[in-house]
Specification:
Strand content: 15-25%
Structural class: alpha+beta
Shape: globular
Number of helices: 1
Radius of gyration: 14 Å
Strand order of the largest sheet: 1-2-3-4
Order of helices and strands: EEEEH
Length: 96
C-alpha cells in the first residue's frame, strides 16, 4: 500500500455508530469517515454535517487525492478488521 501525502487515518469509536469508524484527515483537517456498520462489503462514506465547525473540516480537496485516500482507508479498514484482538492498538471491551 502506497503512502499518500497529507493523509492521516484514525480508527475511532464514535457513539453514533455501532462499530469502530475510520476517520480520514487531510493533514489535521477532517474530511470524512468510513462506517462499517453494514459490514465490510457494504461500507459507507460519511461526510461532515453542518454541526461541525467549518475551521475543522476540509471541503475543497483534489479529486485524485480523495480517490486514493478512499482506497487506502478502505484497505486499512479491512486489514484492521481481520487482525486478531491482541494485535489491535485499540481493543474492544470483553463481552460479559
Amino acid at each position: 500500500m502506497q503512502a499518500l501525502e497529507h493523509l492521516k487515518i484514525i480508527f475511532f469509536s464514535d457513539p453514533s455508530y455501532e462499530k469502530l469508524v475510520t476517520e480520514v484527515y487531510f493533514d489535521d483537517i477532517y474530511v470524512f469517515l468510513i462506517s462499517i456498520d453494514h459490514g465490510l462489503d457494504n461500507m459507507f462514506i460519511v461526510t461532515p454535517d453542518q454541526t461541525m465547525s467549518p475551521e475543522y473540516v476540509k471541503h475543497d480537496i483534489p479529486l485524485e487525492w480523495t480517490l486514493k485516500a478512499i482506497k487506502i482507508a478502505q484497505e486499512k479498514t479491512i486489514t484492521r478488521q481481520h487482525l486478531p484482538e491482541e494485535k489491535l492498538s485499540w481493543r474492544p471491551k470483553p463481552h460479559k
